[in-house]
Automatic annotation (TrEMBL):
HAMAP family: MurA. One of its GO terms (cellular component) is cytoplasm. It is found in: Cytoplasm. Keywords: Cell cycle, Cell division, Cell shape, Cell wall biogenesis/degradation, Cytoplasm, Peptidoglycan synthesis, Transferase. Belongs to the EPSP synthase family. MurA subfamily. The lineage of its organism: unclassified sequences, metagenomes, ecological metagenomes. InterPro entries: Enolpyruvate_Tfrase_dom, Enolpyruvate_Tfrase_sf, MurA_subfamily, RNA3'P_cycl/enolpyr_Trfase_a/b, UDP_GlcNAc_COvinyl_MurA. The keyword NADP does not apply. GO terms for biological process: cell division; cell wall organization; peptidoglycan biosynthetic process; regulation of cell shape; UDP-N-acetylgalactosamine biosynthetic process. Its main location: cytoplasm. Its EC number is 2.5.1.7. This is UDP-N-acetylglucosamine 1-carboxyvinyltransferase.
Length: 437
């Protein structure tokens, strides 16, 4: 268990450089299983989610070479089945094994998934995934510690309609359909930039995929695919996190590798709150221009909306804005648990079951605390905090850095699931902290 002691109240200033998006890279690594030849993925971050997926791939016979500069070579020529207990031991709390199913069913005819974890942000079921796989002809068998899947008659293209534009379920369809026999039509697809980058990778491998209007994706199955060579899309969630950290600490951070196009919804909100930004060729500078910050009303949504992963660090900045801000979380039913620690530090945040803000969502009239009202500005005081999940944890770190006095933040290793060289970056930005194992 690792802990850092933060002496807050110092603006974060300097430069951080991004690598590839966690939420693309891990899926691209799985896609390599579909190829008959090795793949090369560049800009892979050194984060623990990548380590988990590497270990799972190695367990399935994929040879991996991961250089310090972020270039990863994946050779799937000796791919093999693995036992559920071993998958379980390597998966940790990751939900990624569910995405191995399509590729493994194509290559080996069977796949296992242990009971899955992931960040504790609601129930995070896998019903859409299982439904999708059944549509392609997979046979699903419940076993004591997980699920065994097989494809006795091979996988066949299907017409699939998702009840909600789930990122993972859309990836499931893509990774399964590209080598399924015949045509697949997916409606209700997620169209996040990370999904578009995965489609680009699959096309490089030889897949035939078209993205139509209105969330429809069509895939024409092919018999075999080759490896790919690809530079991963930048991590826009990390970019938004550092932007919020700049605002909350009265700082000035240049985020190298951040791009405007994939972050438009965030940039609009950042500007409305009163943050300043300069969009450059090689990144975006985010800074607090002085003066008061403004409250905002935000609804998290699927792309092209405001991402759910952007709200947590921004809440800290909103605690410094003058007036009432409202956030309606419509992607996950339970993603405000992290606000409890912020309240302990002096923020005024109340969470509600009602859909506050614009449109009623699928969590309304149910028992989910999925709306938050933040009243500011309030002074934040240092506290003892335990990191609960990846994005909530980053938010706590930002609060500790913005607060007066000292905070002890434990369980910080969880943040390295998604933020590469996190402590080094904090040091480069001038944060005052000490680290202990
Ligand atoms: N859902 C179901 N059934 C399913 C799958 C999803 O009901 O079978 C629900 C979820 O419970 C949730 C909603 O659908 O309410 C959206 O979930 P989605 O499937 O889109 O999320 P995911 O694929 O599990 C990815 C990212 C998340 C990010 C979401 C939304 C990865 C590894 N994770 O999760 O990232 O918040 O999409 O954009 O790509 C993070 O990076 O911290 C993180 C949680």
């Amino acid at each position: 268990m690792s802990q850092i002691t933060v002496r807050g109240g110092k603006p974060l200033k300097g430069r951080v450089d991004l690598k590839g998006a966690k939420n693309l890279v891990t899926k691209a690594m799985v896609a390599a299983i579909l190829g008959d030849t090795p793949s090369e993925l560049r800009d892979v971050p050194h984060i623990s989610d990548v380590e988990v997926v590497s270990n799972l791939l190695k367990l399935h016979g994929v040879a991996i070479d991961f250089a310090d500069d972020g270039t990863m070579k994946l050779d799937p020529t000796n791919v093999k089945s693995a036992r559920m207990v071993d998958i379980d031991a390597h998966a940790g709390s990751s939900r990624i094994p569910i995405l191995f199913c399509g590729p493994l069913l194509h290559q080996l005819g069977e796949a296992f998934i242990p009971d899955l974890g992931g960040c504790h942000i609601g129930d995070r079921p896998i019903d859409f995934h299982l439904d999708v796989l059944r549509h392609f002809g997979a046979v699903i068998e419940k076993q004591p510690n997980g699920i065994r899947m097989s494809a006795p008659n091979g996988l066949k293209g299907a017409k699939v309609s998702l009840p909600y534009p789930s990122v993972g379920a859309t990836e499931q369809v893509l990774l399964t359909s590209v080598r399924a026999e015949g045509l697949t039509e997916l409606s209700g697809a997620a169209i996040e930039p990370e999904i578009m980058d995965l489609i680009a990778i699959l096309q490089k491998m030889g897949a035939i995929i078209s993205v139509d209007t209105d969330r429809v994706i069509r895939i024409e199955g092919v018999k075999s695919l080759t490896g790919f060579s690809h530079r991963a899309l930048f991590d826009r969630n990390e970019a938004a996190s550092w932007a919020a950290a700049a605002l909350a600490t009265h700082g000035d951070i240049f985020v190298g590798g951040a791009r405007q196009q994939e972050m438009m919804a965030f940039l609009n909100v950042f500007r409305k709150v009163g943050g300043a930004l300069d969009i450059e060729e090689d990144g975006i500078r985010f800074y607090h221009p002085g003066g008061e910050l403004n409250p905002v009303v935000i609804e998290t949504d699927v792309h092209p909306g405001f991402m759910t992963d952007w709200q947590q660090p921004l809440v800290v900045a909103l605690s410094q804005a003058k007036g009432l801000s409202i956030i309606h979380e419509t992607v996950y039913e339970n993603r405000f648990g992290f606000t409890e620690a912020l309240v302990e530090m002096g923020a005024q945040i109340q969470i509600y079951r009602e859909c506050l803000g614009g449109t009623p969502c699928r969590f309304g009239q149910r028992n989910y605390y999925h709306s938050a009202v933040i009243s500011g500005p309030t002074k934040l005081q240092g506290a003892d905090i335990r990191v609960p999940d990846l994005r909530g944890g980053f938010s706590h770190m930002v609060a500790a850095l913005a607060a007066e006095g000292t905070s002890n933040v434990s369980n910080v290793q969880l943040i390295s699931r998604g933020y590469e060289h996190f402590l080094q970056k904090l040091e480069d930005l001038g944060a005052d902290f000490t680290y202990s194992e």
